[in-house]
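User: ok so my PI wants both of these folded by tonight, can you help

Assistant: No problem, let's get them done. Here's the first:
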Amino acid sequence: MNYSYPIDESWSKQEIIDVVNFFSMIEKAYEDGVKADDILISYTRFKQIVPSKSEEKKICGKFEKESGYSCYRTVKKARESNSNKIKM
């Protein structure tokens, strides 16, 4: 991993941990596969921290540019998945 996560310095320590957990879930979906429910739970928490759609697009866009992993496509696949585990 040669990139950093887009973090807002105004977030609390717990919020930073939860956002990093969400990005980690996205990475796992691409690298190993992950439970769809785990993605959706971490996304729900991410949305509590970043409720604005435009801010979400900005943060996830930075993450995708750095890592090549799409938050949008991963969450979409988790929502549409009929199986327990997804792999991007």
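One down. Here's the second:
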Amino acid sequence: MLKAAFIFVAEGADVKKDRSVVTTPAVELTTVGVVDYAEAVAVSRELVEDGVQAIELCGGFGHVGTAKIVEAVGDKAVVGVVRFDKHPGLGNQSGDSMYL
């Protein structure tokens, strides 16, 4: 079974509460909400230690934020990203302009 995760950034997200797991016969998908890149890095490391092999990042992650996650997980997981240059859920900004 593939263990995968989706991480999204949202103001006021609670990394402990804003989390869910959906299990199908082929995939176990964990979703986690974080408030910034630092929290996303910590969560990414935790997820790969729990066996997650693939992480997808929401469009709120800019190029720098994505690179931070890639660096954090190394070769333990592949990282993909939904891409918005300006994310509507972040006031039409990139996470790079908010969290760096």
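The domain at 2-99 is CATH 3.40.50 (Rossmann fold). The first strand starts at residue 2 and ends at 9. Good luck tonight!
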